[in-house]
Write the structure tokens for this entry.
Amino acid sequence: MNIVYLKGQFMPSQEAMISPFDRGFLFGDSVYEVVPYFRGIGFRLQEHITRLEHSLRAVRIQAHTDWAAVMDELVARNGGGNLSVYLQVTRGDSGSRSHSYDASLTPTVFACCAPVRDFAAVSAEEVQELSAIVTADLRWHRCDIKSTGLLPNILVLQQARDHQADEALLLRDGVLTEGTSCNLFVVRQGVIYTPKRSSEILGGITRELVLGLADVNGMQYQEVDIDYDTLMNADEVWISSSTRGVLPVTRVDDRLIGDGKKGPVWARMFELLARYQHQLMTGESEL
């Protein structure tokens, strides 16, 4: 698991070196994607690439690479199977520290792999419930850009850990946005609610898949503003991400959500998502 991709070449990780004047290192002037591969096949790969290209356009980095080919080969060189690919694109090496930049800079492209758990390989009964805290969303206002500037996310996740919780749910101007690296869903009387798409949240690949699965399977959902009281009085709370699937949150701020158990709507969505993932890996997917 030690082959990485850097500036157009595959190499052992110990040989990879990046200039200290690279703007990704100096300023976090870079964007990234994390793409899970299950059985060596990228999960919603094109959707991840589309989001990467959105982020690149938004920060005006011009990088032209066959992203799918790079990630596919990197996974293969690392043995295939269940891996996640971390892909980062920086504005490049400016040769000095300056806030301004030359538009002719050559972007630095880096990618590496890490083991990832196949979230569909267990039953709903085996999925572990999570606990969460609610805390202020201190991030910038372009959360739709998957930027590497993740210090606020790191700090609030550590705050959750300090409270013996698994996740932090972020609150901005009285409205829930998302988690530290996941999207948020609540269920009330059988209806799924999730925060509206905006620049305040990252358009999650699995979030969009969950809504698509709900739509084709007759499950009601709405994209709405969710306040703290709505969250705390929900029947169910979930989070979603591409590497973790959908996970139930049964305790928030030391209070039980609903009856404190995994809910039936979550269980149905977990089943649908696991089936979709299996079909995708075997070439049978319809979405």
